[in-house]
Amino acid sequence: MKYLICLFMIIPSLANAQRQEAVEPIISQDYQYMVRQERKPLNKLDSFIARHRIPLKLLNRVYGYQQASKLRISDTGTVEAIYTPIMQIVFKGSFRTLTELRTHNRLPALQSNFVQGRNVNGATAWRGPETNEAFSYGPAASSLEFDGSAYPFDNNGRLTEKGQGNGKPAFIYDNGIFRPAVHFTQEAAINAYASKNYYKDLYFNLSLKRTTENTFIRDNKNWGTTLLNNIGFPLGPIAIKTSYTYSGNNFSNSNRTGFLNRVYQNSLLTPVSFSNEQGNRLSPTQQRSFSNSADNALFLLNNDNAARWRQHAGSVSLAYTQGNLELKNMLSILSTRQQDKEVFQPGASAWPNGMSSDRNATSLNYTSRSELLLKWLDLYKFNSSVSARHLFTHEQTRINYQPDDLSYRYTRDANDILLSASAFYNPGALDLGLSFGNGFYTSNTAAVNAAFLPFFNLKFGARRIMTDLDMTLTGGFRRFNSEPALNQSMSAANLLLLQSSQVAGYRPVKEALRYDGLAPIEHGEWTSNIEFTYNYRYNLLANFYVRNTRGDVYPFHSGNNLLLDNIAGIRKKGMELTLTIREAAEQHQDIKHSHIISFVTYRNKVSYVKDSYNGLPVAGFSNIYAALLTGQPLGAIVGNDYIRDDDGRLIIGNDGFPVVQNATKVIGDPNPDFILKSMHDFRWNALQLSLALEWKKGGVAWNGTQAALDYYGRSAVSARDRGITGYVFDGVNPAGNKNDLPVSFYDPNAPLENNRWVRYGEAGVATDYIQRTDYLRIRDIRLSYTVKLNRFNDRMTFSVYLNNLVVWTPYKGADPAQFLYDQPGVSGIDFFNLPSAKTWGCNILFQF
């Protein structure tokens, strides 16, 4: 009751206390300090609290890899993400060291039984170097011994029959010039870039490589240096890139004249009874060799035949992009200098008084390439563009020969312009494309300029034509013109003035007299491709092409000059099939693998030869060469053959041997039927095994090396067959009756010049030495192991490999893929072509 009484007493006072006044917050500095300590800075999204269910529009893109530093919200309902730029400076690099051991691959089969000499008075006899005997048709070394006398050509004395000397048996000397070669490479590279929001604003690359090699030809060393530098950076809407490359090589001996082939030739022809190692001079002007018609291989290697090659290349490119417009320009300059010093000291077989030739060649190429690209109607499924390209080239070549005081100067300024348009349509499962245009070509060396050089390309692509199967068809045509490069020396054509037996005197000092006044080489090419891709793993690409070339330029001799002319038309057609098998993205098996198999076949045919040039030799020698002949394959081999009757039977002379035809004819086609290559890759964790194979089917070559070895009695064949008697050649006599005359291949009672091999000369009968050049080779085997060193993805890779390990071929010489005197593209002619190299290598790569 007392509580109720108190309530009634208070109510009047409460009613009197209600007043309409604003409530002021109580401000406490201690409270505010505690709030600031406990609460983190307000998140920008807190502002959304007051805007529940109000839609906001985002003004810019949101990047998942970058966190917004703030959000700017306007009263109009828009949100803008404000990002803090991500700045990075990244350094990467690598260091590689490579060591290789190289040995020569297969060599021609030689005999090691019979010594220097020939048949004398019905018996074979040793004839020493003082007789200048060049042949090895003497007696067996096993029937001879030394007499111990003082003899300048052998420290052990002269050779005589067993029982008439000092009892010391004749030695079989090894005059090989090959040794295991060691190749060493070190390369370091630094890559650095600065980026803003993961876009490179500045990049810098620098690499330096140094190589040294003791080649597998003794007394030869090569070394080289390469420096590469790239810098790129943006300047507003313009991207700038610069590059500089320096390359330099030094060689102990220049092989421009086939000098090393000449060394190889003399080493093979040296009789087993003569040692080149025992000295290469008898006096300051007389070399010590097995014959005055030949050279001591080591004497040749002691000549000063150094070669130097230097090249500087620099470029600056600018790219401007603004909306649908792109402008590009690249300026580049290439400066090359090559010095070849070719010397034969007094006493050389072809140069008894010695010979010296200094060749200095310099070339300067300046190029300006400009491009304009304008995109129009750049829509979601359709886009098109027009473009213009201008290529200006300035070529300048200077060649000097001393002491001949011969000088050649060539200069060319050329403009190549291309105007084009393209359109592409992609309506879902289809890809349709069309591009077309026209080119223009002018130069100060061309007799005529070209203003109609059209081209067009078509594309049709279809995805999912069957389950997981895509298909793409492309095709096109283009016409374009070209001219011979001024820095491509034509001096190799001087070899065509010599027979194969005269190569010791080969000294090419004549270059093309001029390049101006020629018509441009005209090319018209049709191409088509069909590509199938299944499940993104299997890809089959077929490429077909036909190229017709008119007015191809070749050198020829006129009087004392080497001239050029538009001589022939060439038609080349071919096909290439490539099958690629990739790993599936979802594969998780321990061993992963991928494979690439390619099949290439082509045919080259000379469609016409101008005027009186039909049969023009283009590579080789005057007696055996590759020629231009209407209707024949390009590079058809021309040489002599035996006389045959209408049925193709050999005509046998009255001495029982086949009769040689004086005229030459086509005797072989060096072009292959096809080339099949395959590359296989297997990976298991950090291990990777790679294998590359190559099979070439078809094609032949003239084995002039075998012909010369047979002629001089140094081949295994001449040793094996020199004892054959009573042999009857299959053929008919001049009267047309079957031949029945027996012959001996090497009759000691007949002059040496009448034996089976010497009678036909050093080159033999060309058709006897046409051999198949099919081959199957293991191109590369490589095993690699990669170790990740840390979480920054630094890694170390160890690799061991074998290159050109095995070559299976029916060819009887060295590697049939080697070129004559290192002349590029000269196939089908083998005259002491150097063997290929077999390489064992170890590579260590450190990447950081």
Automatic annotation (TrEMBL):
Domain of life: Bacteria
Keywords, comma-separated and alphabetical: Signal
Signal peptide: 1-17
Annotated protein name in UniProt: TonB-dependent receptor
